[in-house]
């Protein structure tokens, strides 16, 4: 997250790049050497040993101090003590040079380094100290009028160097902030790429699960009933060929419907007969096909039917297919009751049989787990277990109020 931009006054000292730091040191050395040479040329009396030795020693100490410029994150006593030491040396140099007017240029070396190593308020206080030292220098070697004459132009120079220093430091900090933001954006980009790969993997897994449910619920339902019809035809073909032929014809019809549904699934990956028909109609068709298995099946619609989202219609349609398929496979039942119930806040489908009751193999199978996943995705629920008076009951329900609001 991008932090609010802080004012320069509240920021910590800014660090320079290694190249910028070295350039600043080189410029400070050249400026110091140039002022020293000019002083000796312009003031012959400074070449006298009695004055040259202390004057040169002070310049050497000042030049040596430049090398030890503290880093911005050094302890405060180092960052504050360094410019104070240099100011003291410059103060002494001006006195030793008898107030040569170009010697205070050395202050222009100290001020930028102060703004690099101290906060704005600390560096500004230090600048006032330099101005006071400059005034005191010329007050000691001359008089008040001379001190003021020297102070005015150099004061303007101080203001200029302060402005340049603050501007350069602010640019450096903006560049550092931009680099941090770029690094954060690159890290976020890499994270998003990783998330995209994970989302793609999850989408593939979800699509595989969806296709597995579709194949199990649709094709498995048809194949179960076709198998029952063909088994019945095999038993009846010798004694009752006409009934055997009817069973074979029913199996053929279901096989064609199954093939058509597979083709729809391949073409659209959304094998649904519910695009135009109502939920009651398609479940009624499933019940009608199931009756061909020889099990007496009743279908009842309770409540006022109303349009439903395709997701809910598909889930309840697959629940009807799965429930009746399990009855055919496992229940050994002679009668089944299918009830579709419309309530104000939910729609429920109940399939009850009079068979053998709890079926462990069915409970552990893929079909009911697939139905649970379907219901969970829609915020619904699934209940499966024995009926109080015998048999087995499957009940699924899906809330519709939130879907109606959408």
Strand order of the largest sheet: 1-2-3-5-4
Instruction: Tell me the overall shape.
Output: rod-shaped
What letter string, H or E per element, gives the SSE order? HHHHHHHHEHEEHHEEH
Largest sheet: 5 strands, mixed
- Rg from C-alpha positions? 46 Å
Class based on secondary structure composition and strand pairing: alpha+beta
Compute the number of helices: 12
Strand content bin = 5-15%
- The overall pLDDT, averaged over residues, is 78
Low-confidence stretches: 1-10
Write down the oligomeric state: single chain
Number of strands: 5
Helix content: 55-70%
How far is the first residue's CA from the last residue's CA?
33 Å
Secondary-structure map:
Blueprint lengths: L17 H25 L6 H19 L8 H21 L10 H11 L2 H22 L2 H93 L4 H28 L10 H13 L4 E7 L7 H22 L3 E8 L3 E8 L6 H5 L1 H12 L3 E6 L5 E8 L1 H5 L1
Parallel strand pairs: 1-2
Antiparallel strand pairs: 2-3, 3-5, 4-5
């Amino acid at each position: 997250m991008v932090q609010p931009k802080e004012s320069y006054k509240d920021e910590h000292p800014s660090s320079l790049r290694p190249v910028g730091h070295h350039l600043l040191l080189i410029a400070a050395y050249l400026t110091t050497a140039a002022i020293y040479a000019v002083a000796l040329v312009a003031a012959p009396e400074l070449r006298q040993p009695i004055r040259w030795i202390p004057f040169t020693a002070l310049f050497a100490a000042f030049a040596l101090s430049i090398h030890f410029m503290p880093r911005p994150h050094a302890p405060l006593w180092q960052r504050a003590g360094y410019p104070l030491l240099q100011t003291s040396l410059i103060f002494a140099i001006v006195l030793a040079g008898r107030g040569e007017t170009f010697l205070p240029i050395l202050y222009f070396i100290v001020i930028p380094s102060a703004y690099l190593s101290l906060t704005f308020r600390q560096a500004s206080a230090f600048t006032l100290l330099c101005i006071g030292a400059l005034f005191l220098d010329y007050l000691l070697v001359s008089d008040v009028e001379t001190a003021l004459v020297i102070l005015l132009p150099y004061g303007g120079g101080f203001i200029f160097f302060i402005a340049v220093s603050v501007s350069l430091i602010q640019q450096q900090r903006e560049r550092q902030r931009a680099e941090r933001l770029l690094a954060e954006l690159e890290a976020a980009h890499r994270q998003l790429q990783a998330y995209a790969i994970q989302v793609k993997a999850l989408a593939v897994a979800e699509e595989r699960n969806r296709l597995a449910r579709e194949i199990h619920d649709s094709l498995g339902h048809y194949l179960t009933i076709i198998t029952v019809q063909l088994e019945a035809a095999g038993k009846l073909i010798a004694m009752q060929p006409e009934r055997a032929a009817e069973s074979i014809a029913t199996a053929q019809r279901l096989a064609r419907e199954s093939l058509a549904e597979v083709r729809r699934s391949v073409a659209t990956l959304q094998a649904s007969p519910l695009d135009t028909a109502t939920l009651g109609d398609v479940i009624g068709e499933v019940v009608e096909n199931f009756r061909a298995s020889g099990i007496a099946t009743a279908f009842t619609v309770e409540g006022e039917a109303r349009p439903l989202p395709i997701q809910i219609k598909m889930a309840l349609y697959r629940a009807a297919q799965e429930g009746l398929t399990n009855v055919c496979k496992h229940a050994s039942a002679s009668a089944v009751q299918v009830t579709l119930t419309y309530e104000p806040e939910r729609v429920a489908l109940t399939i009850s049989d009079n068979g053998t009751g709890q079926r462990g193999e069915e409970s552990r199978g893929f079909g009911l787990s697939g139905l649970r996943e379907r219901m969970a995705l829609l915020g619904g629920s699934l209940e499966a277990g024995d009926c109080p008076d015998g048999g087995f009951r499957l009940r699924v329900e899906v809330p519709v109020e939130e879907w109606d609001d959408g």
